[in-house]
Amino acid sequence: MHVVVTSDVDAYAADLLVGKWDSIRVLGLATGSTPVNVYGRLIQRYYDGTISFRSKRTFNLDEYLGLAPNHPQSYRATMVRELMQYVDLPDDRFHVPPGISDDYDAACTAYEDDIRAAGGVDLWVLGVGVDGHIAFNEVGSAGASRTRVVGLAASTVAANAKYFDDPDEMPTQAITAGVATIMDAREVLLLAKGDAKANAIAKAVCGDETADTPASWLQGHGNCTFVLDRAAAAGIISLVGADATEASGATGRVHSLEMLG
Ligand code: PGA
Predict the structure, then answer these.
(1) What's this model's pTM, rounded to 2 decimal places?
(2) Residue 254 belongs to domain spanning
(3) Domains held by the chain: number
(4) Ligand 1 centroid to 128 CA: how many Å?
(5) What sign does the CA torsion over 44, 49, 54, 58 have?
(6) What is the Cα–Cα distance from 260 to 245, expressed in whole angstroms?
(7) What is the pLDDT of residue 254?
């Protein structure tokens, strides 16, 4: 794992994506507040002619169970609002797990099959929850987990209910790509900002690889970068010091650490 600490997570992530744009055929995406400004920067690069989505295919991590695609808080609608409506990605190349299905098991299998049929995800952009969840892989999610229906942790429900006009409308279940689905991506880019994430990030990078902190499974990914602001990196820095160039996980894996200021 490579850990980058920067004062501008959005610019770093957008530049990284644009820099390798031609090699990304299949892009994994996340909803949530963290990547929104990265998407804004990609839209700018699309408008200035630097990049196109025309030949890309995208897979989102997750969707709320029970929300129709056109529900304003569905992750599909959110992605359309934040990115897809502005760029030239063909509709049939934009994939989000279905929030409503007659057969969720079949829908989960189909999502995995669709990713495989597309040739796998080249790079998956991730956020992380304050408890270390990735996608809706809540605490307790096994490293071998695949796309499935999950119950949401009370902390996740509390964190996301603010986006609903009526907080009681906030779903308590979701359909999510699994940890193994994410680990299959050829590259993973996890973004985190703010001190609320510092503890989860420290455990994910310096702790055990454990279902107690689902993001910690990423220590075992051969091509994973965490891009953090100083606040989100504070837990790591307090463990290894501000001048460190490496941080080790509890199982002994050594991660490179780059402080860009
Ligand atoms: P956030 O959510 O980007 O809104 O902080 C991340 C997550 O819960 O995975």
Answers:
(1) 0.97
(2) 2-259
(3) 1
(4) 5
(5) negative
(6) 11
(7) 95
